[in-house]
Amino acid sequence: MTLAIPMVDIPSGLTRVLGSLKAKEQPLPLESVQLRARVVDRVAEVTVEQKFGNPFREAIEAVYVFPLAGGSAVSRFEMQIGKRVVRGRIEERAEARRQYAQALDQGKRAALLEQERDDVFTVQVGNVTPGDAVVVRLTYSERLPFFEDGRTELRLPLVVAPRYVGGEELPREQAGHGVVPDTTTVPDASRITPPRLVPGFDAKVSLGVEVELFGGFSDLACSQHAVSTSSGPESARVMLSREREPLDRDFVLRWRIAGEEVKSQLLAHGGFALLSVVPPARQGFLGVARDVVFVLDRSGSMQGPKMASAGRACASLLRTLGPRDRFSLQAFDEVVEWMPGGFQQADEGAIERGEKWLRSVEARGGTELDLAMREALQQLRSRGESAGRAPVVVLLTDGQVGDESSVLKRLQAELGDARVFTVGIDTAVNDGFLRRLAALGGGTSTFVEPGARLEEALQSVGREIGTPLVTDLHIDGEVTGLAPARIPDLFAGRAAVAFFRLGGPRVKITGRFADGSQFEQELEAREAPLAAIDHLWARARIVDLEDEFRASRSEAVKKEIVALSIRHTVLTRFTAFVVVDDEVVNQGGTRRTVVQPVEMPADWEMTQVMAGGGPAVLSAPFARGPQRAPLKAMGRMPAATAQAGAGKAAMASVPRQLMEKLIGKHSLEKPATVAERERVRLALEAFLGAFVAARGGRGGAEQLEQARIDLLRALGESLAIATAVPLLQAFLRGAAVELVAAVAAGAADAALYARHARLLEAGRDQARVALGEAGAPAGSFWEASI
Amino acid sequence: MVLEELSDRVARELGERGLLGAAADGRVSDAPDARTVRYYTTLGLLDRPRIEGRQARYAERHLLQLLAIKALQACDLPLAEIQQRLYGRSDAELKALVESLAAEARTSAASAARVTSLRLREIAVEPGVRLVVEEGWRPRDPAALEARIRAALAALGGER
């Protein structure tokens, strides 16, 4: 059949609305974003300038959630009004927030800069009066990754992509201004989920990017933007060719450092040093045999070209395996699916079956990365006959999750001797998280854009997966404050980096090759104009401390982070930059908050907007049935899958619906009294205390059993609370009984406690939500994001 | 109010203002459902509801925001343009917008009734033969339809 032609089509209402004065287009607060980067000695110093106006009729507070490169050390923040520049101070986060709020109430212009994730930041600019313009400017530095062949890249992210948020909504005031409510698994979801522009809405933000490279270079390429380049003998300047580009993808510039082969180097400035170690070229090096688990993200956000690219990337990595290796394949969204057959010898037949399986993977659903990693690590642990093969996980994803912290925490606890490698695939990838995941997992991370050059970009990844060239690196010399505290292992062709305070002129690096022989390099320090080096050192040290904090939640570690942050002026999640102008411009401080809506990342399929603006069909995870209360803005899924998914979800939610019918409604009618809540709270605390005492060998089975009975009784007196805490109930009636028996028999070991602690924590968290004790957002929400 | 109540209020107030089902083909759904409401929230067109217990609670501002969205949809504006017009508006502005659209809808109701737009879809079956159907048409009895088309073609062919 051919073509359908609308014969008569009179949009009767359009002219009427356009004629209406009240329905003029409303400009947005963010007017322009200018980025200027200078790259010297493989360190980039970047200045980001954001200009906010007020196109509204009353004073506003503009809020903008934006990304910066994942490993960046933000060291300066200022506000400019006309020609006047006011420099920001770094303070403990709660204090900075207090100063900012106070200045706003006093009618003064003020700005606040906070860090939400390694790569997500929020800026708030308050008391911008109608017609006014306020510029905020921040500066950060970043150490660029580079390879022995001189390849390096600078990534300037421009949009925070939608992140998957699981868990139950928290019944408390929201921590931020975003569109997804805070949940049990992402308690600060509202801080990382800015509203989205509908495709077709030109936000009219003028974007400028200018990069200056110093030193020789070649093969300059910008993969996602058109640029113009002007170069002198020792430097080059790269600028965007087009004036109005949407902020919907990372600006990625790659080049090769020209001249002789890139070698290890030791750069020093002001008592700090930056060490880059490049391993020697491998000579007949054969890595150990590997057991590789490929974990492929098939969530809704991968919909479109990304999914196809991820499948291709996985297939091309599969092809790099040798006949001694084994592999298994996993694809995950809200559920984890394995290629049947467990670990398979990587022969031609198995690889072909793997490729075929990969082609069948379609994007859909949520991103339960924590679940996927748990299963992958379990799969490696449960190998019966590992025969000395190195356990490896390769994760292919866009990394767009909100609960990074839980994934990192799991890795810290359950990694064992496995290594984790990450391959980030997106136009706007969550690079900070994927880098950190790989660093914790003793592997490497690589970023590729979906598209034709994918295989080429992955060439080097295959050979390094699972097989470090040099391990157990150690530095001799007058070295203190080494960060990271454990120098990363060396992979073929890739530089490993460490920062430290250096007393003498040289250091000696030693390590062990895979075959057991000794690795040794001596390096002379070279003085370099690296003003940012103390910021970078502090940032690297803070990353170590954050890992420690995640595991221990220790107050002492927190204090150390705050102290480092303030002493070296580096932004962290425990601190914030605040800047206040003394002029009173908005007497009374009455204002509205307007959150800048941001673009959907390029190549993401947000939603299908029906012709003429009817009710939009919602993105995939929305369509997952009634039990999916929190909002998960993600990609669209094909209609057929959507229906199947909804059917499955409906089935799964039957018991829940029944329960709500039988009990839930009742509990809503009769909420728990204050006395009931208090009783449950005390009983819960007593039980947690008894558990900790038993675990520490200080309490017996009797105390634990008594606490268990008391808590069950307290719950029994309040139907409303009891029905809201199924996890806790299940724990008390199941696992806890087993635990008491084990304690009584003297058979409770550390592993048993560890297993029960996780169950108990889940139950406790649920109970705290039910008791309305999820905590006020102020003062604590950022701790959960580490 | 909870979502159902909000949804009812929107439908009722649209009706009272003569803004209900203003588009000829009924593309404006009167009562927004949960999904639609969540989608508008991700666009920042609708403020996030307050969470009480396990329920989302909506207030007067949410009502105003939805009324404004629906009123503009009734004017055939695509969502991008609706967002462009409503984003960040104050309650007063939203109220004024809804009332002015309602006023226009009332004054033009009589004349608008006369202007009906007819949408037709057309397919060239082969050179010289075209099939035209009204939008919204659905086949009922395929056998009878086929018979009628045959008869029509025979009648047209018989003229030659």
Chain-averaged pLDDT of chain B: 81
Strand content of chain A: 25-35%
Shape of chain A from CA axes? globular
Figure out the total of helices of chain B: 7
Q: Helix segment count of chain A? A: 18
Q: How much is the radius of gyration of chain B in Å?
A: 22 Å
Task: Provide the CATH superfamily of the domain at 290-464 in chain A.
Answer: von Willebrand factor, type A domain
* Major sheet strand order of chain A: 5-4-9-2-1-11-14-13
Which CATH-level-2 architecture of the domain at 290-464 in chain A? 3-Layer(aba) Sandwich
Low-confidence stretches of chain A: 1-22, 607-669, 774-778
Report the top-level CATH class of the domain at 290-464 in chain A.
Alpha Beta
- Terminal-residue CA separation of chain A: 58 Å
Structural class of chain A: alpha+beta
Beta fraction of the residues of chain B? 5-15%
Protein chains sharing the most extensive interface: A-B, 70 and 59 residues
**Would you tell me the overall average pLDDT of chain A?**
84
Overall geometry of chain B: elongated
Q: Biggest β-sheet of chain B, characterized?
A: 2 strands, antiparallel
Explain this structure to me?
The complex is a heterodimer of chains A (786) and B (160). Chain A has 786 residues and is α+β, with helices and mostly antiparallel strands. Among the domains of chain A are: 265-282 and 470-553, Immunoglobulin-like, CATH 2.60.40; 290-464, 3-Layer(aba) Sandwich (Rossmann fold); 611-652, no CATH class; 662-783. Chain A is built from 18 helices and 31 strands. In chain A, strand 4 (73-81) and strand 5 form a beta hairpin. The longest helix of chain A has 22 residues, at 674-695. The radius of gyration of chain A is 28 Å and the shape is globular. Chain B has 160 residues and is mainly alpha-helical. Chain B has two domains: 3-114, no CATH class; 120-159, no CATH class. Helices cover 54% and strands 12% of the residues of chain B. Chain B has seven helices and four strands. Chain B has helices spanning 3-16, 34-42, 60-73, 79-86, 91-107, 109-114, 142-159, and strands at 50-52, 55-57, 120-126, 129-134. In chain B, the strands form two sheets. A two-stranded antiparallel ribbon of chain B has the order 1-2. In chain B, strands 3-4 form a two-stranded antiparallel ribbon. Chain B is elongated, with a radius of gyration of 22 Å. Classes of the chains: A alpha+beta (786), B mainly alpha (160). At the A-B interface, helix 1 and strand 31 of A face helix 2, helix 4, helix 5 and strand 3 of B.
